[in-house]
């Protein structure tokens, strides 16, 4: 008899779904130009780390193998990502929880920049699929009570799981922030999602593990998704300011601003573009056969309040 796996929302399962919505990778040929991959898994996890702790240390002064290994172990729910990430740091998570409650606009602004930097909002509609998959995961995770609060509204007000699953309008940035906050601050450790990862991404005996989950096929009611860019006051955040190196760099070895002025644009330069953007709103509607959660989406109608790249 096949084992029934209870799917769980935690940091690693959120990150696994988040990665599926990334912008297209440059490919191996680009590495020969000396430019780092701006949408790599370590960069994505570091960006999400800085939503938790804006001045979190730069992980890219560690050896490449350390950064890649810790990132992979967090994604597969083997641990909390090691000391180079803040997910196992109680002080960092407590401060994040306080900022969410006391200074929500600034935290939402930081998540908005991460989304602008990394998430593909083009014609492949990866962003839409991400929202669908996270809603399905929240629904499927029976360890989350109906009255569990998520800080997933644009105003920063907490809403219950039950209300999230009834909502007809969702803001991409605030929804992702609220789900990320819950995933990393819930009492269960990241290893809580290990069986879920093994279900979604079966082991291949050491090879690349491809996503085989079916969350995108589990759909609830009609939903209008709003995109809000440039929300709140800009907050300086450098996602990547150093390349990966083989050994830790000393203070004397770290280039100053004058030394790096002529470099190719980095992910932090892309992040700065988000700071300069004006607020823009987008809407789309997802329609299923009926109001049941477990029915496939038939149509997605795009309704632009601004302009969305296709």
Short descriptors:
6 strands, 39% helix, alpha+beta, 9% strand
Oligomer: single chain
Task: Summarize the helix and strand pattern as letters.
Answer: HHHHHHHEEHEHHEHHEE
Question: How many strand units?
Answer: 6
The geometry reads as globular
Q: Span from first to last CA?
A: 45 Å
Low-confidence stretches: 231-310
The portion of residues forming beta strands comes to: 5-15%
Largest sheet: 4 strands, mixed
Which class of secondary structure composition applies to the elements?
alpha+beta
Strand order of the largest sheet: 3-4-5-6
Mean pLDDT: 77
The helix fraction, in percent, is 25-40%
Descriptive account of the structure:
Helix 1 runs antiparallel to helix 7, helix 6 (104-118) crosses helix 9 (172-185) and helix 6 (104-118) packs across helix 12 (267-276). 36% of the residues are buried. Helices cover 39% and strands 9% of the residues. Strands 3-4-5-6 form a four-stranded mixed sheet. It has a two-stranded antiparallel sheet with strand order 1-2. It has 310 residues and is α+β, with helices and mostly antiparallel strands. Residues 231-310 have low confidence and may be disordered. The protein has a domain at 11-23 and 36-203 and 210-216. It has helices spanning 11-20, 28-31, 41-52, 64-75, 90-102, 104-118, 126-140, 161-164, 172-185, 194-200, 257-260, 267-276, and strands at residues 149-150, 159-160, 169-171, 223-228, 281-288, 297-304.
């Amino acid at each position: 008899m096949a084992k029934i796996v209870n799917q769980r929302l935690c940091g690693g399962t959120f990150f696994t779904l988040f990665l599926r919505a990334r912008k297209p990778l440059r490919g191996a040929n680009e590495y020969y130009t000396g430019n780092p991959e701006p949408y790599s898994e370590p960069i994505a996890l570091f960006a999400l780390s800085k939503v938790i702790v804006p001045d979190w240390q730069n992980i890219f002064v560690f050896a490449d193998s350390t950064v890649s290994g810790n990132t992979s172990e967090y994604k597969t729910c083997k641990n909390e990502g090691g000391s180079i990430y803040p997910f196992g740091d109680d002080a960092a998570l407590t401060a994040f929880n306080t900022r969410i409650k006391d200074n929500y606009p600034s935290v939402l602004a930081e998540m908005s920049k991460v989304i602008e930097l990394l998430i593909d909002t083009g014609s492949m509609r990866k962003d839409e699929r991400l929202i669908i998959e996270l809603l399905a995961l929240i629904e499927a995770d029976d360890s989350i009570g109906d009255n569990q609060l998520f800080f997933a509204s644009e105003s920063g007000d907490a809403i219950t799981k039950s209300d999230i699953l009834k909502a007809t309008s969702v803001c991409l940035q605030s929804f992702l922030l609220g789900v990320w906050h819950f995933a990393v601050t819930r009492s269960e450790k990241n290893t809580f999602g290990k069986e879920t990862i093994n279900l979604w991404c079966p082991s291949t005996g050491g090879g690349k593990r491809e996503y085989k989950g079916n969350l995108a096929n589990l759909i609830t009611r009609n939903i209008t998704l709003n995109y809000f860019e440039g929300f709140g006051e800009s907050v300086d955040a450098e996602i990547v300011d150093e390349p990966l190196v083989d050994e830790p760099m000393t203070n004397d070895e770290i280039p100053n601003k004058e030394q790096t002025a002529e470099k190719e644009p980095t992910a932090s330069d892309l992040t700065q573009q988000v700071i300069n953007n004006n607020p823009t709103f987008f809407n789309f509607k997802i329609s299923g056969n009926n109001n049941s959660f477990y029915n496939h989406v038939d149509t997605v109608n795009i309704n632009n309040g601004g302009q969305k790249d296709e």
